[in-house]
Structures are given as C-alpha cells and as structure tokens.
Amino acid sequence: MESGFLARAAEEAGLPFAVLRVVCDPASRSLPPVAGTVLSPDGGLNIKALLGSLLRNPGQISGLIGLGKDAGRARTAMLTFLEQQRTRPAFARFAG
C-alpha cells in the first residue's frame, strides 16, 4: 500500500520509519456507496460527486454519519496509543 513506497524512500535516505494504521469501519458493515466515489485520485473530496450521490440516494447520509463516528473513535484510539508509546525507547526516536 502507500506505506511501502514511503518505507523504501525512508530506507534509501537512511531515515527511521514506522507505520501505524487504524481501521475505522468494522468488516461486518458495508460502506455507503458514496464512500467509494467521492475521493479524487489525489485524495481530495469531489463535492459534486458527493452531492449528486446524496441527492440520488439520501439514505446514505446515516451511513456516512456512522462512518464519521467510527473514524473519530479510530482517531482517538490511534492518538491514545501514540501518547502511551511516546516515551518508550523503541518509539522515542519517532516522537519528534
């Protein structure tokens, strides 16, 4: 995935590298269709596609709200982990 490219670049530059990923949606839940269509190739949000999809299928809104809540919980879990690890020797060099 994206981190493979970054890992190679860091290794070539002689820089330390670590990856932490969190998953924000449980495998048991399907994403609303709009979630797979509104991001541009550069990771930006395509507002026109978002609004068009929601106008055609407004029932997706509750799924997006749930996804947003899940993303918030994932972010909190990641930040909590990072704070707990920040002072450990293995992670201290990444803490900045």
TrEMBL record:
Example GO BP: nucleoside metabolic process
Enzyme class, UniProt record, top EC level: hydrolase
Any GO MF annotation of the entry: methylthioadenosine nucleosidase activity
InterPro entries the UniProt entry points to: Nucleoside_phosphorylase_sf
The protein's Enzyme Commission number: 3.2.2.16
Alphabetical keyword list: Glycosidase, Hydrolase
UniProt protein name: 5'-methylthioadenosine nucleosidase
